[in-house]
């Protein structure tokens, strides 16, 4: 059983939902990324999503785009990100780490080479934004052969046929994009999320996390009432944009409030 599976099994036995924060590796500076990862865990994170900086994003809003630009200015590459995970693992061997990004860096490295390096570093899952299930079969097979969970996105517009295709390939969890638009968008409609999740769960046997549009405790609590996990990204990256001084403490404090609210969602 993978670290991701173990985490969800433990949380389900406690009637709790996973808190999954996202940060961009190398933002605002590579020297603080590992410290920030530990700070997120201290604030209640159950799984970490670590963004791999990329120059041409298609799903990221302006906040995360700027984070990638800042990290790229420091020369942060996929290999550097793997090094950060390996450093994190020196102190934390339990919290799952998922790399989130785009296909090009992995294509350039080669999926076999990447998978071997990712396992050695301590990566548990990979979410590739621009890799649809129709084109993912060979790549997913390589990831799974090395014990890495391939995580897929589903959206409000996803057709049943594609939900079924994702259900056949995905492992760990599935990330449901809660609204049309890019990361950091607003106007999250919980009733719409609830309705779509009920359809998705007819075909999936693994947990479903919800992200995009979650930036405060009230929304996180509402999502936690209907989903298996809550994913928060842009709100955290805004803290990084404010500067590295005190960043770790700010993130711990913010997540602590989110975690407390989530823990009352199904009380």
Q: State the distance separating the first and last CA atoms.
A: 28 Å
Q: In what range is the share of β-strand residues?
A: 5-15%
Number of helices: 12
Question: Percent of residues in helical segments?
Answer: 40-55%
Strand order of the largest sheet: 5-4-3-2-1-9-8-7-6
Shape: globular
Rg, Cα atoms, Å? 17 Å
Structural class: alpha/beta
By oligomeric state, this entry counts as single chain
Order of helices and strands: HEHEHHEHHEHEEHEHEHEHH
Quick check: average pLDDT? Answer: 94
Q: Which sheet architecture does the biggest sheet show?
A: 9 strands, parallel
**How many E strands?**
9
Are there runs of 5+ residues with pLDDT below 50, and where?
none
Characterise the protein shown here:
The alpha subunit is responsible for the aldol cleavage of indoleglycerol phosphate to indole and glyceraldehyde 3-phosphate. Belongs to the TrpA family. Keywords: Amino-acid biosynthesis, Aromatic amino acid biosynthesis, Lyase, Tryptophan biosynthesis. The protein is an alpha/beta fold and 267 residues long. The protein is 47% helix and 14% strand. The chain contains twelve helices and nine strands. The protein is globular and about 45 Å long.
């Amino acid at each position: 059983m993978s670290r991701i599976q173990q985490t969800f099994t433990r949380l389900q036995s406690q009637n709790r939902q996973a808190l999954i924060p996202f940060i961009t590796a190398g933002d605002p500076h590579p020297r603080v990324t590992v410290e920030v990862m530990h700070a997120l865990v201290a604030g209640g994170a159950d799984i970490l999503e670590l963004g791999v900086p990329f120059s041409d994003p298609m799903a990221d809003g302006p906040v995360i785009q700027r984070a990638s630009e800042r990290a790229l200015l420091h020369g942060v590459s996929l290999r550097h990100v793997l090094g950060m995970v390996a450093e994190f693992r020196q102190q934390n061997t339990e919290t799952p780490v998922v790399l989130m990004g785009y296909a090009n860096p992995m294509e350039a490295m080669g999926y076999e080479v990447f998978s071997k390096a990712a396992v050695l570093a301590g990566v548990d899952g990979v979410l590739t934004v621009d890799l649809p299930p129709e084109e993912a079969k060979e790549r997913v097979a390589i990831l799974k052969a090395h014990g890495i969970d391939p995580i897929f996105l589903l959206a409000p517009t996803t057709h049943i046929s594609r939900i079924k295709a994702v259900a056949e390939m995905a492992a760990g969890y599935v990330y449901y994009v809660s609204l049309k638009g890019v990361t950091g968008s607003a106007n999250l409609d919980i009733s719409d999320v609830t309705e779509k999740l009920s359809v998705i769960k007819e075909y999936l046997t693994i947990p479903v996390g919800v992200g995009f549009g979650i930036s405060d405790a009230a929304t996180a609590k509402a999502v936690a009432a209907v989903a298996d996990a809550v994913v928060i990204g842009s709100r955290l990256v805004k803290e990084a944009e404010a500067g590295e001084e005190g960043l770790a403490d700010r993130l711990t404090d913010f997540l602590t409030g989110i975690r407390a609210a989530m823990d009352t969602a199904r009380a």
